[in-house]
Amino acid sequence: MWRATPLTLFPAMFPGPLGLSLAGDGIARGLWSCDPYDIRLHGLGRHRTVDDTPAGGGAGMVMRADVLAAALDAAAPAGDPRPRLLMSPRGRPLDQARVRALASGPGVVVLCGRFEGVDERVIAARSLEEVSVGDFVLSGGEVACLALLDACVRLLPGVMGKELSGAEESFEGGLLEYPHYTRPRDFEGRDIPPVLLGGDHGRIAAWRRAEAERITRERRPDLLGRKG
Ligand code: SAH
Fold it and tell me: Signal peptide position in this chain (predicted)?
């Protein structure tokens, strides 16, 4: 079973939306698990403090290295084979290749930051891989972690069933996906491209390929020539 362990100050956020739909069915069927670990269990003192003011001054609070290390060591003791990730806008942007690699492993341990972020020393001391979900700033790592888990879980064998047409999706082959259409044939005066209604599978495949290339060239030329 593929195991996800998000470390968070808000364990109630998990599995959240991933408890519904196909991902949720996957949990119910034992294909994967999502067991959040409450960082606050390792908070210090009567108030279970997990953060402190930034060394050098400045706004906001920083999550303490000692608290986070204790939480990581308890949630994923030495010998746990899963990669340890830190959701972070400074990380390498998540892509489908990394998602596929994570999905084919034993699972993930994911530290979700809050406040201004985490003490730099715990990143090195626990070999955390920083992962970003895009060039924007969230209020915490939980929503970023949910996005990462969603992307991984839908690739697990049995989770998506026939719905997953893996080979033709966006990013497979380094291209964005071609456009989709379904009934009705006429929508507010807009037709379905005739080639899709002709039943010639060779022509349909060629049209989809050309559309995928056109859309990728227009919107994400940086993807062309990159390996999905
Ligand atoms: N002060 C930080 C932002 C902290 S946001 C900075 O300027 O870089 C608080 C937490 O939200 C982060 O520790 C991280 O866990 C999470 N987070 C915010 N944006 C993210 C993103 N784009 N990708 C992944 N995690 C993100």
Answer: none
Out of 127, 153, 179, pick the residue that ends a domain.
153
112 lines ligand 1 (CB under 6 A): yes
8 lines ligand 1 (CB under 6 A): no
At 169 the pLDDT is: 81
Please work out whether the CB of residue 90 comes within 6 Å of at least one atom of ligand 1: yes
Considering the domain architecture, whether residues 142 and 218 belong to the same structural domain is answered as: no
As given in the structure block, the two tokens for residue 220 are 């994400």
**Domain boundary residue, one of 103, 125, 153:** 153
Q: How far is CA 228 from CA 56, 166, 180, 198, in A?
A: 42, 12, 21, 30
Which atom of ligand 1 lies nearest, measured to the CA of 116?
Answer: 1
Among 98, 138, 149, say which to mutate for ligand 1: greatest number of ligand atoms within 8 Å of CB.
138
Task: Give the single-character DSSP code of 118.
Answer: B
Q: 197 lies in which domain range?
A: 168-223
Share above pLDDT 90 across residues of the chain, in percent, rounded to a whole number: 92
Residue-level pLDDT at 181? 98
Q: For 203-225, what is each residue's pLDDT tens digit?
A: 999 999 999 999 999 999 999 97
